[in-house]
Amino acid sequence: MIHQANKMIVDRIVKKLKLPKEKVPCNLEEFENLGGASIPSLMVTRIADQLRTKETTLLMSSFGLGLSWGTMWMKAKLMKISDVIIM
Description:
By secondary structure, the chain is an alpha+beta fold.
């Protein structure tokens, strides 16, 4: 999962790293930029079923203004994830 407010940049990173697009979920079209909540929102909107039903390994990376960035690799056991409520 990659957070960046610009889909063009995300697409370029995916292409440069030669990652399969199905391995890089995105919800910018639906929610736009959620800042620090982008990665958790991806987890509950795009891969919730996977996280609920099988152990999963995730690589999460976020980058923003200037040189701010963070990356985390996580092995997740089964998770309890509530549905998203949009008002």
